[in-house]
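User: Here's a chain of 193 residues. Predict its fold as tokens.
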Amino acid sequence: MPQPGHITKMELPEDDRTLEADIQKYFRKCQEKLGLIPNVLRAYTINPLKFRVFSAFYNQLMLDEETCGLSKLEREMISVVVSSANRCYYCLVAHGQAVRELSGDPELGEMMVMNYRVAELEPRQRAMLDFAWKLTVAPHEIAEPDRQRLRDVGFSDRDIFDIADVAAFFNYTNRVAHAVDMMPNRIYHTKDR
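Assistant: Prediction complete.
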């Protein structure tokens, strides 16, 4: 049985030196920039090809400033709201910390985790998060009036696609995290409080 510090309930490579050179390089970059290697990345080393696809897609979706009309903070807020609906412990802890860091507001991070509706948000953010929540809990009910509400607060159709893309990605990752009992790095709990 895995110890309390386990990454997943799956057997993963135990020694980073056994990983392929490009993955080792990626991990060194994470350690340099973040001060840690996120456990989700370690989990994906179970299949190197999937690791590469996952990390490339995540980086484009969540970090690219040029091709997305949403701020990094807005994308992280979506990730936390989706994860709250799905009760995904890993993503609530990891991305709740990102909201705290990017906003400079520990309380906002906690509100996103527990109940985004209690946060004082601008109408644009409220509409964005309402859409992400509905897309998560009742995707079959999304219709043109939902998209129009986003347009009414200033989102373009491309922005709406980005909101949906981020929400969909985190619905996917939440399910993987649940399935393999993925645990967040403990350091997330203490950062940006």
